[in-house]
Amino acid sequence: MKKIIIMVIKLFNYMLLLMYYVIPKKGNRVLNEQSNDVLLVSLSGLGDLVIFLDSIRGYRHVYEGKNIVLLTRLANREFACATGYFDEVIGFPDHILRLDRYNSYAKEISFIEELRKRFFYAVVYYGFGKTVRGDLFVKVFNAKTKIKFATYRIGGNRSFITKAIDSWSDSWFDKIAVADKEEMHLIRAAKLIRELGYEDFKADIPHIPMIESVDKLDLSEYIVIFPGSSQEGTRWQWEKFAQVMQYINSKFNIPCVLLGSDSEAFLAEKICNFVKHIDVINLVGTTSIIELSEIIRGASLFIGNDTGPAHIAAGTGTKSIIIMGGVTPGQHFPYCVETGKDLRSFQMPIYHKMDCFGCYSSEQFKHCNKKNEIYECVSSISVETVCEKIDEVLHNAVKGNRHEYY
Predict the structure, then answer these.
(1) Is the peptide bond before 334 cis (omega within 30 degrees of 0)?
(2) What pLDDT was estimated at residue 29?
(3) Structural domain contains residue 312
(4) Within this chain, do residues 243 and 316 fall inside the same structural domain, yes or no?
(5) In terms of domains, do 135 and 191 share one?
(6) Average pLDDT, the chain
(7) Which of 223, 224, 232, 270 is buried deepest, with most CB atoms within 10 A?
(8) What is the pLDDT of residues 159-199, one digit of tens each?
């Protein structure tokens, strides 16, 4: 019964929001086309935001003299501010996106109406997965120019209706940057910068500046373990993370630091109970994103799932071993840059290739995603494979060194 009520509430919110977004707005449009603000919209997770950081230098060049304003999830706002890349950061409350409360639509409209009081020189929507909801969100902003990346849908062939809806939502934008959906997101972002006029721009590793005000761990050496993931399908088994930690302890005697969010505390508890006789520092649920960032910066190695903190490891110069599914190979990891840097010893994604490898835009992904369990391509990755990579990194490592490109 509870599920039915939530479904009805969501449908109610969707219908009201659709009416709000689609009906033309009058009365409060700001007609100041001399606006000095460029709005960059990133409503995805932390990882996409970190990738996006590399292209900010490009937007600074393209929109020289303009203020660069970021609209991102409220949970990412403190981190985005701390990087120093933006003149202003606006946080979009995460709970609004859920639409499972009776007044969600009213809160979202109230938030959007405040933004509609401003006129932007340009709006750039940074997102690659196709969501009409995201397009609607940007549609109502007052801007001289609206730009977005070409997007693609999950799950196989599109119906005639879906194609019509996609064509309709694309018409709300003045420019759509076309790219191969298999391309690494750093490359896609760089291509748009070049299309906007900065022809010499080249994709590079995003750089997260050191945040001096944050306390560092008082350890000479440690390894960060990140067992969580916002998607259950890409979350490697906690038992395997525990076995990896036991291996690190027995062979290298290096302490492991567990990191994660409040919602992942249950994983840390299970792991700590499993490895109770070794040296583990459990900080899951106790750090902010900027604190987490500095802890990862100080680590000899990061080991975790394909999730936001793995991108923070890249941005802070920490070598990483990333447990990857076969859903979107090459789009997030390994990083692909245009500056000639060899990153093979820097990022080490581990895959278990199956016949359905690269299934994101196929029916197979929809089938696996409905199971509400770990994807087979993730659960099939062995502890032995990960430990071999650990040997490779730690046997060649010099204590305290950053990667050569940092």
Answers:
(1) yes
(2) 45
(3) yes
(4) yes
(5) yes
(6) 82
(7) 224
(8) 667 777 778 778 888 888 876 767 888 998 999 999 999 99
What is the token pair recorded at 182? 């298999």
Q: First CA to last CA across the chain, in angstroms?
A: 54
Find the domain containing 56 and state its range. Answer: 34-195
Q: Which of 321, 318, 346, 306 is nearest to 221 (CA)?
A: 318
Q: What is the CATH number of the domain that holds 160?
A: 3.40.50.2000
Q: Order the strands of the 223-226 sheet from edge to edge.
A: 280-282, 256-258, 223-226, 301-305, 320-323, 347-350
CA dihedral 279, 285, 289, 292 (to 10 degrees): 0
Highest mean pLDDT among 159-173, 330-344, 361-375: 330-344
264: its two tokens: 């992942």
Express each pLDDT in 241-296 by its tens digit.
999 999 999 999 999 999 999 999 999 999 999 998 888 999 999 999 999 999 99
C-alpha to C-alpha distance for 250 and 240, rounded to whole angstroms: 15
Which residues are CB-contacts of 278 (< 8 A; sequence separation ≥ 6)?
245, 246, 249, 256
Residues sharing a CB contact under 8 Å with residue 330, sequence separation 6 or more, in sequence order: 182, 183, 184, 336
The tokens for 242 are 């525990």
235 and 347 inside one domain = yes
Q: Provide the number of structural domains found in the chain.
A: 2
Predicted local confidence at residue 99, as pLDDT: 56
Do residues 188 and 239 both lie within one domain? Answer: no
Mean pLDDT of 198-209: 95
Give ∠ CA 289-189-259 in degrees, rounded to 5: 20
pTM: 0.87
